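Researcher: Here's the sequence for the chain we discussed earlier.
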Amino acid sequence: MTTTEDARAVRRTIYRFARGVGQEEEDFVTVEEPLEIRVDGHSVAVVMRTPGHDLDLARGFLLTEGIVKRPSEIFEISQCPSHETEAGPGNVVDVILTNPQTVNLEALSRNVYTSSSCGICGRATIDSVFQQFPPIDSDFTFARDQVAWLPEKLSQAQRTFAQTGGLHASALFDGRGELILAREDVGRHNALDKVVGKTWDAGEVPLDRHVLLVSGRISFELTQKALCAGIPIIAGISAPSTLAIDCAQRAGQTLVGFLRGSSMNVYAHPERLVES
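Model: Thanks. This is the structure I predict for it:
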């Protein structure tokens, strides 16, 4: 097995058929592996993800799941060297809390298996989300014609997707439409957790002057994670779910779906999208 430099894609032998003729070739395939997140020795979750930026993924997961609220609550975070794989560092992240007595670790020890496409589904309702995270209070606006250019900018940053065609992505843009950060993963929730974890650790959350673009369907979990990070505008290339729309309306988030060139559907709070 030959891996790419960042271990997010591997070469596998395939049989490519075209016009009835088959030929053996090598092609790049997206890597999917489990990552166990442990907090003070307690297994909190196992997520199926694409290796890379694992510490940011764990940070983002802990924040958006409401386990921690500030970077200072994490005393140490590291990748367990005893679980080394051929793709690189181990598939276990160990987190040590500064004050573990403030968290009910026994209640968190769920040994949850999380599929890459699903996230931690059904665990939270809209009501429970707003008990942890208040609605967004931001006067941020964004030029409507700038929204149309965001997918192209994201596409240029999706190096592994260009190889494999098998990854989701989340990207953060500033008020001028400049790409700040993009992350790819086999799971769309993981890609967003990597973005949130990176910016949160850098002290940049809340991201109340930014736009989030996701590459696929917009689920309730994505709007909830964006709310946690204080992101006022969410755009997606595909459709949102009803629960995502309900959450965005209540959260004060602008929600854009079916973003295809200058065409888009705005499902919540269109007033943030203004003429340039």
